[in-house]
Design a protein that fits this description.
about 350 residues, alpha/beta, pyruvate-formate lyase- activating enzyme, 8-stranded mixed beta sheet, 3-stranded mixed beta sheet, 12 helices, about 20% strand, binds iron/sulfur cluster
Length: about 350
């Protein structure tokens, strides 16, 4: 498999030191992700995203935000800003919570989910976790998920745990993180944060994504898979390196190491993204899947084609990352309604 150029230096940043900017959110704070469509074969439910901030203080080479119009055209700073009209965000969340069907609201798809927690305390007098978690803790239908590479759990630790809120850490092999997740805390520290939250009674998950075929990937991903298994998360989501057509150019423009995208010499069957050669993808996903203790927790693939699920030997039972591993029935019903799954004969 191909490898990439020499690693760039990794300098950890303190998010609160770099996020003084604030901006006005022009669109809605809650958006529904639109999957590429059922005919594409890509498996992804149309999940809900809460946009709590713009940009991110970390500088991952593969970050797709770099290619999104808000940052390409400079509407918001890529390095991060919180929203001064945050009260509108809370109002939207309260309206969203009145929906009758169970749903998951994700904080961290369009920015890091926890990196801005302390900045909100300076801006609004209360950390983001302190504003959002009580809204979900007082009901039993919907869940909130913070997806993050941050270790900023100080404010969350002061709140009583609830099963309605999940903390999910985006992880990678140490070597991959050192080379392509510049500024983010090393995976060992992310695992420490997860361990601490789990010990307090919070549900935790992990996302091992993007898996990258650097030289020595077996050792790197075998080690992180063992460490993940030791923490018994409720779910682990896997994904391989992928990119839109323009991401490499944007990474170069932002002074990030775009050479890793040279590995993407294939496309998924639906033409959705540039991908690793299919054989490499399947080999790496099988390797990690076999290392994870998948009899004890759910393992899923993120935005992968149905044929990859089959080739890896993973059974697709619906995107239950929507709700939770204990809610297969609900997830299945919702996805039949959405046309993603066929109803049982
Ligand atoms: S942590 Fe996430 S949002 Fe931040 S730069 Fe990395 S990929 Fe982008």
């Amino acid at each position: 498999m191909s490898t990439t150029s020499a690693p760039a230096a990794c300098a950890a940043v303190t998010p609160t030191a770099t996020l003084g900017a604030s901006a006005v959110r022009r669109g809605t704070f809650i958006k529904q992700f639109r999957s590429p469509g059922k005919d594409s074969g890509i498996v992804c439910f149309d999940f809900w995203e809460l946009v709590v901030a713009a940009g991110c203080p970390f500088r991952c080479s593969y970050c797709f935000l770099q290619a999104t119009p808000s940052y390409v055209f400079g509407h918001y700073p890529l390095s991060g800003a919180v929203f001064s009209n945050w009260k509108d965000m809370l109002w939207e969340v309260e309206q969203w919570l009145t929906a009758p069907s169970p749903r998951m609201l994700v904080v961290g798809e369009l920015q890091d989910g926890l990196a801005f927690d302390g900045v909100y305390r300076s801006l609004a007098g209360m950390a983001l976790t302190g504003m959002l978690i009580p809204l979900f803790a007082r009901q039993k239908r919907h869940r909130l998920l913070f997806l993050t590479k941050s270790t900023a759990i100080r404010h969350a630790l002061r709140i009583s745990p609830t099963q309605q809120v999940v903390f999910s850490w985006s992880l990678n092999a140490e070597e991959a993180a050192r080379r392509w997740e510049i500024g983010a805390p090393p995976p060992a520290r992310r695992l420490d944060a997860a361990r601490r939250m789990a010990s307090e009674g919070w549900p935790i998950r992990f996302r091992l994504d993007p898996i990258i075929p650097f030289q020595g990937w077996r050792e790197g991903y075998g080690q992180i898979a063992d460490e993940i298994s030791a923490l018994s998360p409720e779910m682990v989501t896997l994904g391989c390196l992928r990119a839109s057509a323009t991401l490499q150019a944007h990474a170069h423009r932002n002074g990030r190491d775009g050479s890793l995208f040279d590995m993407l010499t294939a496309k998924d069957p639906g033409g959705f993204k540039k991908r690793l050669p299919r054989g490499n993808q399947i080999e790496m996903l099988q390797f990690v899947h076999q290392h994870l203790d998948h009899r004890r927790f759910a393992v899923a693939l993120c935005k992968e084609h149905r044929t990859i699920w089959d080739a890896v030997g993973m059974q697709f039972r619906g995107c239950h990352c929507l709700i939770g591993p204990s809610a297969d029935g609900q997830a299945h019903r919702l996805q039949v309604e959405a046309g993603i799954l066929r109803a049982a004969p």
